[in-house]
Amino acid sequence: QAYLSYSNIAALTHLARKPGWDITKTLDNVRIWTHEEGAVLSFKVEMQVKVPSHVAFSLLSDFSLRQRWDKHFLTCKVLQAVSEEEKIYHVTSAPMTGHQPRDFVILVSQRQPCRPQEPYMVAVRSVTLREMPPSPEFCRSEILCAGFQIHSNSSSSCTVCYFNQVTSGVMPYLAANLTGSSKSIEDTALECIKFLE
């Protein structure tokens, strides 16, 4: 478990530092970037938020609050509190047209910065849990690497970056999005800002 949690944080740090991100969209306080490498598509949503970074961190690291702003989350319940900084959740998401509803078993690892210039981190990856085998009513999907980095801008504002490395399991939700025919990523980002503020 210690290894999983370390690799969860390390994978998010590595993804955030990758060179070659292309900006695809800029709104007032939201910027969307993409990164392609072989068959893996990653995206980054950068949001300017008018709350202190520690407040954004405490709200975003509690995934039971996620349904309040992310309409892709239908249910989210804690399966196991591994430690103060680690929880395993079971998430279900609404079915897309022509697709079975999906579910995910995810490990959420949170870290406070060790040094002032470092970001707060909330890293997410799929794990397998014997107590939660795949069920026939859902299509079990996988998150390779996702999460938030929260950088402090001032005592009352921060930059929240959401990252997601997209697998084919998450693709139906995003394909329409990145071609611009759906504004789901932007809408979710704006809901997230509204929720945090």
UniProtKB/TrEMBL annotation:
Gene encoding the protein: Acot12_1
GO CC term, one of those recorded: cytoplasm
Species, as recorded: Erythrocercus mccallii
InterPro entries associated with the record: START-like_dom_sf (IPR023393), START_lipid-bd_dom (IPR002913), START_lipid_transfer (IPR051213)
Any one Gene Ontology molecular-function term assigned to this protein's record: lipid binding
Pfam families according to UniProt: START (PF01852)
Protein name: ACO12 thioesterase
Gene3D superfamilies: 3.30.530.20
START domain sequence ranges: 16-166
